[in-house]
Amino acid sequence: MTKFFNAGSALALAACLWSGPALADEDDVTAWRLFVSDHAGPVVNVIDALDGDKLDTFTIKGPASLYRTDSGQTVFAVQGEAGAVSVISTGIAFHDHGDHGDIDVDEPKLLDAGFNGSKPAHFVERQGNIAQWFDGEDKVRLFTEKAALEGKPEIREISVGAAHHGVAAPFDKHAVVTIPNPEDASKRPIGARLVDLDGNPVGEDVACPGLHGSAGSGSLYALACDTGLLLISQDGDTPEIRHLPYSDKLPEGSSSTLIGGKGLQYFVGNYGPDRIVLVDPSEKDAFRLVQLPTRRVHFAVDPIRSKFVYVITEDGQLHQVDVLKGEIAHSLKLTDPYSMDGHWSDPRPRIAVAADKVFVTDPLNGKIHVVEAQSLEKTGEITAEGKPFNIVAVGGAGKAHEGEDHEHAHEEGHKHD
């Protein structure tokens, strides 16, 4: 993999990065890694986000959607067509000590904790608990990230009534699962059900017609419905579900894809092909629309600069949306046009944020664009074999103890993941 950073970026990287074992007086370490799947082949490439070098390539069974956990210790490669789920240890781990965080940086590894199933789809992780959904099965599988890292996940299966395209949100002693349409399970689910770990219903089912799309933000997990959002929270032993109806001020429509804010509690959803809706559950007027110039291709939140969301549209523009102001702050022409006509799974750009950069895959041109997150100026690009597609970023900064090996030392002392 070849990198093409501009001269200014190269000089800045040379000045601030150092590879090799950390010296006794150089214990502030920063490490960021990109995990990139290929649309055309069964591989996941691992790239150093700070200098663009390829660290490793893992061969899996099929093209994958990638999901990282909140801890950043694992990335799950969900291969729907191949019927497989692979587990990758990112090699980056943080340990919270109150007044500071320690960082351990090791080699990434493809673990022996993967498993097979019929049409694996939605992956949800909350506080170390994982729910892996399979569209072709009438049950969801629950396990913990800790067990997966140890290579021997103890999987608990919960019945969901019938095979359908749904989702499950895991909690410590419960799960929220979607309810299949009783007339035709191939249609969208009709509601959500709270169950215990034996699959027994707890409380009343909650209606959610046309359920599709889910995301977590802070202590909340949200499911998107034709009528609004279902917000799931847990203050005591048992999770609670409440309905947040769409505002009467919104035009006709609904969300079917959600992402959740980091640092600030909010959700962003599609609302028609060329608009997004910003959702602040704490506000009386919870919904605000943002008009896009053309149809949305992909969006992602900024986990560090919490008020920003990045959206790429089919005209090849990358937009920085300020969720506090409810408007597009900056736009940048970045790629060739990627039409949203055609199959939903055609190769199109995807976005990830690492440190102070936004990374955008450009699968038809075999590259990853590198953009300054704050100013939205392009600073370079990384060339890649194949068609780089889905991308997630893992990393941050912390204290490294004397004698430990790390990829990069940097004058930063706080974790971002």
From TrEMBL:
<feature type="signal peptide">
    <location>
        <begin position="1"/>
        <end position="24"/>
    </location>
</feature>
<feature type="region of interest" description="Disordered">
    <location>
        <begin position="398"/>
        <end position="417"/>
    </location>
</feature>
<dbReference type="InterPro" id="IPR047697">
    <property type="entry name" value="AztD-like"/>
</dbReference>
<keyword id="KW-0732">Signal</keyword>
<protein>
    <recommendedName>
        <fullName>Zinc transport system substrate-binding protein</fullName>
    </recommendedName>
</protein>
<dbReference type="InterPro" id="IPR015943">
    <property type="entry name" value="WD40/YVTN_repeat-like_dom_sf"/>
</dbReference>
<feature type="compositionally biased region" description="Basic and acidic residues">
    <location>
        <begin position="399"/>
        <end position="417"/>
    </location>
</feature>
<dbReference type="InterPro" id="IPR011044">
    <property type="entry name" value="Quino_amine_DH_bsu"/>
</dbReference>
